[in-house]
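Ticket #4471: structure export looks truncated?
Reporter: QA, pipeline team
Priority: medium

Steps to reproduce: submit the single chain below to the structure queue and open the exported record.
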Amino acid sequence: MRHIVYDVDMDNNVFYIILGSKKQAFYLTKNLSKTFGDYIKRGYLIDFEIVNKFKKIGQTKAIQVHHFTKIKSLNPEYTYYDLSLLKVKMAEVVKKYNYYLFLDFEMTMPGYKKGPFQTEIIQFGAYLVNKKREVILTRDYYIEPINTDGINKRTKKFLSIDEVEFFQTAKKYRYFYDDLKELMTTYNPIIVTWGKNDRMVLKNSYKLNNLKQITRDRQFIDLLQLHKDYFNLKNDLGLFNAHMQYYPNQYLEQQTHDAKDDALVMMEVFFGFMEIMDKENNQIK
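Actual output as written to the record:
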């Protein structure tokens, strides 16, 4: 919907436009109001999408705004927000790196008994690729936690871990640390994760093992958050559901919670996402 704002009541997170001869109210959620409330003013040209939700504000029935695509003042002429241009810039940022490290961890889980618990990394799965999408190397191994009680019944059941095999093959954390450090030093990749949990547990692992931090937040791309920002999604999207959207004819078995398998799925989702961005941005240009 593209209209001129007729009136504004930001005390109630509401603005009005004229539809036909009727003054229609639209309301912003708290998050939208926090982001865009200061830019919704009378006489501004706004382009936005709505959802089929309503809210009674006094005697007025307001329609919920889902997201904005453009906000512009007409006198003087100035664009405050343009989603299509932001998508172009987003694509430029995502595509500028020479190497991408698609990284996934499996982690310990608290047991069935209550008590203090610290999550630790117990499996490292990764694919390193270059700009041409060529796989340079992969990683797939178990990592022994400091607290071996983390390999409990719940963890083993959820991750389908054989305890004997785990402790026979698991690497020490220092092996993983040196391995990741060499990858980062040699290739300087941008690290791609699905959500923020992997980044957070990695950061915490340095502290747990009394080692210097070798990655920084700026070296990560949260592919889930990219999807939410690009497609204006309000809720989280599952990795395997995202994969189905890009590759509807490619059957994937039920998620096995294996770090390397998940890293591969994430890499394929990333490539699908890149193709969508390229297609849309070419249309904009």
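Status: closed, not a bug. The export was complete when the record was re-opened. Leaving a note from the reviewer for reference: The first helix runs from residue 30 to 36.
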